[in-house]
């Protein structure tokens, strides 16, 4: 057996080292002296291409299994398979959607080792920027970077063509909370969706995420103590525990929020329990729970399917009827935080705990926008404190 060539009966097989692996491929033709000599020359040529960095496995061996295994699409499939049990269903769906819409059409058939940094930059600038926001482009690049990291675990010396690519994001939008006058208009405008209106009142004065409030159950409420435990969320129609342990919290309710609960209790507090499946934080374990949900769809008397049902089927129309400029229901959370911050008297640590933030810095970063029409006179407070 010559170096790089082996004869097996009437067939010839060549072998060579590529990307730290020994590769074996069938040489087309019977094991004649002439074909053996040609096989040796092919091995020499392949080794030269590998040294020069010009070897294209798929071009040289288009029908080889290893050619398919070297495509970027192959590693996309492996990456998705690994990720699926590790992440929330909503996150997986987000990844899969971006891969199907943008990454697969352009890169799935390309050899992973032949995807070039400049080609990726050109793709971003000439294709993605035409239709996508920078936030989406950044997410797409992040997905590709993770797939290349996976590819490098099998190909130690492989390069990552996304290295050095930075997608800059615009500054975050400031919170756009509702004023006291707008809150009054929202809560006093008549509606036949009264359960949804009580939900909005509760959100304005307690600050949960909408995914948390549509999954709130009476089993999470202690009206006598005036407390609520936020321990699950509903995302894309699926129940799951809150995203982080910090988000899993018990909060003490302000009077308007507690009043909303007492009123809604007359409508939903005595209904039959229903069994749901809640995905746990490991994204694999499913726990069955029997619950009575607090806020139901007024039209169907069933639990809200998702945030869209609240936002587009109720909130937009209700704000228009109330004469209030439209902002999404997530601004109820901003409103709660900003009103507490604007008093200048509530410790940020307490506000942070109410919101389920990791630390007070996060609270200030996202919610420290003063509601000037309701804020106390900070200058007078400062002068009084300094005695000037």
Topology, pairings included?
Blueprint: E1 5-8, E2 11-18, E3 21-27, H1 33-52, H2 57-60, H3 65-69, H4 72-83, H5 89-107, H6 117-131, H7 134-154, H8 180-188, H9 194-204, H10 210-213, E4 221-222, E5 227-230, E6 232-235, E7 238-241, E8 249-252, H11 255-268, E9 274-279, E10 286-291, H12 307-322, H13 331-342, H14 348-355, H15 360-367, H16 378-386
Parallel strand pairs: 7-9
Antiparallel strand pairs: 1-2, 2-3, 4-5, 5-8, 6-7, 9-10
Helix pairs in contact: 4-5, 4-7, 5-7, 9-11, 14-15
Please state roughly what percent of the residues sit in beta strands, choosing from under 5%, 5-15%, 15-25%, 25-35%, 35-45% or over 45%: 5-15%
Main beta-sheet strand count, sense and barrel state: 4 strands, mixed
DSSP summary, beta strand count: 10
What would you say the CATH architecture of the largest domain is? Orthogonal Bundle
Series of H and E elements = EEEHHHHHHHHHHEEEEEHEEHHHHH
Principal-axes geometry comes out as elongated
Low-confidence stretches: none
How are strands sequenced across the largest beta sheet?
6-7-9-10
Question: What is the residue-averaged pLDDT?
Answer: 88
Structural class: alpha+beta
Query: Tally the helices: what do you get?
Result: 16
What would you note in describing this structure?
A hairpin with a 2-residue loop joins β2 (11-18) and β3 (21-27). The longest helix is centred in the middle third of the chain and has 21 residues, at 134-154. The chain has 388 residues and is of the alpha+beta class. It folds into three domains: 5-64, no CATH class; 72-154, DNA polymerase, domain 1, CATH 1.10.150; 180-378, Orthogonal Bundle (hpI Integrase, Chain A). The strands form three sheets. The chain has a four-stranded mixed β-sheet with strand order 6-7-9-10. It has a three-stranded antiparallel β-sheet with strand order 1-2-3, with helices on one face. The radius of gyration is 30 Å and the shape is elongated. The mean pLDDT is 88. The chain contains 16 helices and ten strands.
